[in-house]
């Protein structure tokens, strides 16, 4: 293989494909970092909410709803689900002393139940919605499917939108205030319990949106929630809990590490590298790249 | 009072055991134990095994049974777990006193059950497991295999490929575990013997999300053929992503028989078109015996038979032929009768090779056309069987 061949056929596509995967990971991690970082809930069922979003898109598409409308409809439908999960499962254990352990176990159990319910309703076989934007584009000899290109752009738009809401609006300020000190926020008139439920539901809605967007690429099956959950948690920890920019930087960085490392070593070893990075961060820089412990 | 009841009970039980062990043994039904996955991931395979055996037992019993005795099937769930399979097989041998055992799916279960059969001095057969070692370096005098093993499949596929794309450059992509590595190695050795060149190989982790990271290497190699042995969801992702990236044009994709199945073919959609593989059975085989079998199978189960159903169906007829030839169900006599036995199955005549207990059978190459497998080539039994690697007997 010549150097030009290597650059054009191997290195450059690897970086671009890594970028598309990175955007997918960031999309899943976005909802997780909000729930984890702002509400201090370790939501192990986040992957299953992502799966519910994908299945909802599949079912609604079969009923004749167009893809573009699904991008709005599915996240909106996920919000009452998220509210209900927060009220019925998270809140009863939220006040306990071992909040991390109890929320982790409750959401883990919820994830297992959702997985089986999806299997009972939709069957165990893989399904796949058609790609909404077919075809591929070629730039400098690098071929990228149009839908992945679209995903990169939409992903960027979603991140900017969420960052704007969290950091630049009054609503976002209320969420951050409630996360920082719930008693102080409550005494200043912030409806803390509503804000908590709403924030959880917002994170769940984002997971559902990721499900709609990624289903055409990664296909839909009951255990699909496990696909991204570990990588998403890694991204949240490395980026800094609750930090949106942290999730973006860590998501893109880790997937690039994975993509480039798989050129030199066996792809099986890229997972230990990624999770090793997470362990290193937990030991040496627990606040992550952009996180400040205690600040959302 | 209580002790008297217990004594009566024990007495009754002993009498019952004595009866079933003695007087009934030669005139009662022939019991065949079936240890097969009835729950878990492999349920669809266990289902086919069960349907195939039940249909065969019904037909044999209706025609007068085996040497005048009826056949009774006793099912146990092995959960596709060798440890469970051993436990259930032990129960069938010791408690149910079965004469013959079959049904194991997982190759590990089959190997474990073979050892158990040796200890119990009984015979067993698999109708599903692919691993070459079962009738190769880990062969057992008490285990038979009536389905095609991995090597028969790859030999048939390589023979077709040499005709379709002579001297093609092949790229290999397998899942990174025992099955993936052994299937790639087997096909590579068959393909290189028939003149194909190896462009490169990569092993992707099981349950990979994104195969695009390997596409650069595939593109740079410029292969004419891609061989893959991924399965389930992995196939859906690999083939659809290859299609999205425009890599499927001009590329012949071939693979293991479990790569594209009725479970994932719908999800793969158009990306499955042209996929070819080597198999021992297809419902489309154009023989009168097969047409009759497929009709009866559909009528009984409202589903098409697959290779597992057909091979399991065929097994009971081999056992019937062997017992009638031996004139007894004794292990040593039946073993001798099975060795070298030729009998008719839906997919054609099969012969059990005496040297390793592997059935020789005609092999077929099937290819996906408009979402369904079509038979496009066949390879004679002798050309696909491969060398006898069993040295234990």
What key attributes describe this structure?
heterodimer; A: 296 residues; mainly alpha; B: 393 residues; alpha/beta; seven-stranded mixed beta sheet; five-stranded parallel beta sheet; 42% helix; 20% strand
Describe it.
The complex is a heterodimer of chains A (296) and B (393). With 296 residues, chain A is an all-alpha fold. Chain A is 76% helix and 3% strand. Chain A contains 11 helices and 2 strands, in the order ααααββααααααα. A two-stranded antiparallel ribbon of chain A has the order 1-2. In chain A, α2 (46-62) crosses α8 and α5 (146-168) packs across α6. Chain A is globular and about 65 Å long. In chain B, strands 7-6-8-9-10-14-15 form a 7-stranded mixed beta sheet, with helices on both faces. The longest helix of chain B has 20 residues, at 2-21. In chain B, α2 packs parallel to α11. Chain B is an alpha/beta fold and 393 residues long. Chain B has 13 helices and 15 strands. Classes of the chains: A mainly alpha (296), B alpha/beta (393).
């Amino acid at each position: 293989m010549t150097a030009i061949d290597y650059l054009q056929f191997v290195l450059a596509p690897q970086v671009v494909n890594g970028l598309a995967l990175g955007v997918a990971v960031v999309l899943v991690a976005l909802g997780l970092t909000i729930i984890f970082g702002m509400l201090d809930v370790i939501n192990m069922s986040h992957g299953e909410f992502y799966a519910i979003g994908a299945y909802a898109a599949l079912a609604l598409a079969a009923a004749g709803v167009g893809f573009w409308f699904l991008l709005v409809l599915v996240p909106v439908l996920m919000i009452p689900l998220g509210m209900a999960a927060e009220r019925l499962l998270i809140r009863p254990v939220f006040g306990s002393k071992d909040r991390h352990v109890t929320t982790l176990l409750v959401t883990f159990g919820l994830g297992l139940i959702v997985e089986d319910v999806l299997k009972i309703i939709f069957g165990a076989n893989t399904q796949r919605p058609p790609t909404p934007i077919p075809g591929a584009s070629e730039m400098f000899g690098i071929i990228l499917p149009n839908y992945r290109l679209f995903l990169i752009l939409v992903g960027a738009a979603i991140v900017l939108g969420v960052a704007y809401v969290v950091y630049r609006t009054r609503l976002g300020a209320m969420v951050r205030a409630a996360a920082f000190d719930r008693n102080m926020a409550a005494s200043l008139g912030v409806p803390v319990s509503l804000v908590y439920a709403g924030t959880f539901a917002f994170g769940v809605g984002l997971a559902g949106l990721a499900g709609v967007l990624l289903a055409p690429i990664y296909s839909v099956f009951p255990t699909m929630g496990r696909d991204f959950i570990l990588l998403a948690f890694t991204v949240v920890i490395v980026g800094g809990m609750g930090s949106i920019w942290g999730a973006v930087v860590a998501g893109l960085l880790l997937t690039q590490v994975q993509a480039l490392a798989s050129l030199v070593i066996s792809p099986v070893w890229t997972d230990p590298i990624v999770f090793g990075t997470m362990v290193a961060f937990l030991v040496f820089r627990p606040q992550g790249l952009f996180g400040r412990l205690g600040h959302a | 009072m209580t002790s008297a009841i217990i004594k009566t009970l024990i007495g009754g039980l002993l009498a019952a055991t004595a009866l079933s062990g003695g007087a009934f043994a030669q005139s009662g039904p022939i019991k065949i134990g079936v240890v097969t996955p009835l729950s878990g991931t492999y349920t669809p395979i266990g289902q086919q095994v069960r349907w195939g055996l039940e249909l065969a037992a019904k037909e044999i019993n209706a025609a007068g049974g085996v040497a005048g005795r009826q056949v009774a099937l006793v099912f146990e769930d092995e959960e596709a777990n060798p440890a469970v399979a051993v436990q259930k097989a032990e129960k069938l041998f010791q408690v149910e006193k079965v004469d013959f055992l079959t049904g194991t799916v997982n190759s590990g279960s089959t190997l474990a059950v073979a050892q158990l059969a040796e200890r119990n001095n009984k015979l067993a057969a698999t109708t599903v497991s692919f691993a070459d070692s079962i009738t190769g370096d880990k062969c057992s005098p008490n285990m038979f295999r009536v389905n095609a093993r991995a090597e028969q499949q790859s030999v048939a596929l390589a023979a077709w490929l040499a005709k379709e794309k002579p001297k093609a450059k092949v790229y290999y992509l397998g899942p990174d575990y025992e099955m993936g590595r052994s299937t790639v190695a087997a096909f590579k050795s068959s393909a290189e013997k028939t003149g194909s060149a190896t462009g490169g190989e990569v092993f992707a982790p099981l349950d990979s999300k994104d195969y695009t990271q390997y596409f650069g290497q595939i593109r740079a190699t410029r292969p004419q053929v891609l061989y893959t042995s991924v399965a389930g969801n992995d196939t859906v992702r690999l083939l659809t992503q290859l299609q999205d990236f425009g890599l499927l044009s001009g590329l012949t994709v071939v693979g293991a028989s479990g790569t594209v199945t009725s479970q994932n073919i719908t999800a793969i959609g158009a990306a499955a078109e042209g996929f070819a593989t080597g198999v021992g059975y297809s419902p489309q085989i154009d023989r009168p015996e097969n047409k009759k079998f497929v009709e009866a199978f559909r009528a009984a189960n409202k589903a098409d038979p697959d290779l597992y159903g057909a091979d399991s169906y065929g097994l009971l007829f081999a056992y019937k032929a062997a017992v009638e030839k031996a004139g007894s169900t004794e292990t040593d006599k039946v073993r001798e009768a099975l060795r070298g036995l030729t009998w008719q199955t839906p997919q054609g005549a099969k012969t059990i090779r005496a040297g390793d207990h592997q059935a020789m059978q005609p092999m077929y190459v099937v290819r996906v056309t408009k979402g369904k497998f079509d038979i496009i080539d066949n390879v004679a039994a002798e050309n696909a069987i491969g060398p006898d690697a069993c040295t234990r007997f």
